[in-house]
Amino acid sequence: MGLPEQERAAAERALVTTLLTRLPADPAGLCLGAYLPLRGEPDLLGVLAQWVGSGGTVGLPVVVRADAALEFGRWAPGMAVVLERFGVARPEPFERVMPDLMVVPCVGFDERCFRLGYGGGYYDRTLAEHPCRAIGVAYDGCEIARFEAGEHDIALAEIVTETRLLRPPR
C-alpha cells in the first residue's frame, strides 16, 4: 500500500478495531486461521496475541502442494517460524490444526466480497474443502471496481477495511 507510514499505521489501527468487533468475544476452544504479514498486508500480530492470550488457537497457513488446500500449523507469539517460499512463515515445530474461522489477506477485493490473492487459489480450495466463516482484511485502496470471479472463487463472509465493513449482496 502506497500510503505514508503515519497514514498507514492509522488505517491499520482502524481496520484492527473493526476486525475485533467481527471476531468472537470468547475465543476459548476456537482456532483462528490467520497469517503473519508480508508485502504490506495489515499487521494483525496484536489481534493474534490477544486471541491466544484469551484461550484461542491460531493456525498459520502452509502450502503443501500447488493444487491442494492449505494446511494450518499451530502458532503462538514467540514461537519459532521457518520462512518458506515467498516469505510465508511456517510454525516450527509444525502441529496441524483446523481453523473454525479465518482472517484472509486481500491483495484486491470487490464489493461482492470476492478477493484477489497472489494467484494460487489456495484459500478458495481451502474454503471449498473446509467451509468456515472467512473475513477478508484489506485497505480501501485495494478495492477494484469489479473483476471477473472464476467459477472456483468463493466470496468471503465479509471484508474489513479501515473505513468499511462489506458483506456480499444477498
Secondary structure topology:
Elements (H helix, E strand, L loop, with lengths): L4 H18 L8 E3 L11 H9 L3 E6 L8 E5 L5 E3 L5 E3 L4 E2 L3 E5 L2 E2 L5 E2 L5 H8 L3 E5 L20 E3 L4 E2 L4
Parallel strand pairs: 1-2, 1-7, 7-10, 10-11
Antiparallel strand pairs: 2-3, 3-6, 4-5, 8-9, 11-12
Explain what you see.
The chain is an alpha/beta fold. It has a single domain, classed as Rossmann fold. Helix content is 21%, strand content 24%. An eight-stranded mixed β-sheet has the order 6-3-2-1-7-10-11-12, sandwiched between helices. It has a two-stranded antiparallel ribbon with strand order 4-5. The model has no long low-confidence stretch (mean pLDDT 93).
Name some characteristics of this structure:
single chain, 170 residues, alpha/beta, Rossmann fold, eight-stranded mixed sheet, 3 helices, 12 strands, 24% strand
Structure, briefly:
The chain is of the alpha/beta class and 170 residues long.
Which spans of ≥5 residues are poorly predicted at pLDDT below 50?
A: none
Largest sheet at a glance?
Answer: 8 strands, mixed
Q: Count of helical segments?
A: 3
> Count the strands?
12
Helix content: 10-25%
Give the strand order of the largest sheet, numbering strands 1, 2, ... along the chain: 6-3-2-1-7-10-11-12
Sequence of secondary-structure elements: HEHEEEEEEEEHEEE
Shape: globular
CATH architectural type: 3-Layer(aba) Sandwich
Termini distance?
30 Å
